[in-house]
Predict the structure of Inositol transport system substrate-binding protein.
Amino acid sequence: MKTSKKIFSLILCVVLALSNLSGCSLFGKSESTSSNGKYMLIMSKQDTFLTLLKEEIEKEAKNKGITLDFVDTGEQVIDQVRACKKAKDENYKAIICQAYDADTARQLEIAAGDVPIVFINKRIDEKFLKEDKYIYVGSRDSEAGKMQAEYVYEKLGKPSEINAVILKGSSGIVTEYRTLGIKQYFQEKNVKVNYIFEDSANWKTDIASNYVQIAINTKQKIDCVFANNDLMALGAVEALEKNGYDLSKTPVTGVDATVEACQSIVDGKMQFTVLQSAENIAKDVIQAAVIIGNGKSIKDLEHNSNQIYLFVPFEKVDKEGAKSRIK
């Protein structure tokens, strides 16, 4: 791991050097102008939630009269570095960045120079953040896990012991905290939980379905399934349904409250999800970007935590809540 990070740092130096000589030709010159200055939105990949988040950020920027230039870097860290370098060279006020790899935050900050960054989606470790300059806007992921666990605990009649499957996302702080929230809740309730299957399905429906099938093949009782996002929860539903499980008695829970997940809940398949409000996050993202982009402090914002985090609360979504979201 240390060797790979050294290699990346060397590549970063080369990229920055070449950028200084030739400019950032990958992106071209921005034509955007605004009395409020220019802002850049960098995203690496887009699933259902991220597509919605991008749309909400762009909508909020438009509502506020903010010029926002979008850069799709794909799953290329080097292209994210180049985008940050472009923002520095072209005097952008601030960068909004969904880092492909949260561990590369420092490299992105170096490339951005004095341009502040609002990180989104993948929570950044506080060691990479700086008050009112490098901040993260999102939700407190452990809350999502606790909400899922609370629902299942109540649904199953407050049992003293259960058999559970956990479908985790890719390695990182989001997965770590959502999973931790589940486990902490049951520990606090003194519930013995047998985690008969726990592995990363990488946020994907098909992998989750295959993993739940593996759990089923062990012939152990499955009382519930926790998924770190809705796509994996839908994969769990697919496998359980195929094997004749009564989904009204085997709660499957997810996170994101996507339209597909809400429809599944209304249809009596999934039972519960947690809303990470793209609309509310987008409002905080744009507000924070403008504030730190103008050298001010986020200390007075409602969701501020230590001037490095803005934690937008999750919301519980059961069947009634799901109905309201698909109207």
Remarks:
- The longest strand covers residues 192-200.
- The radius of gyration is 21 Å.
- Residues 141-275 form a domain with the Rossmann fold fold (CATH 3.40.50.2300).
- The chain has two domains: 16-139+277-312, 141-275.
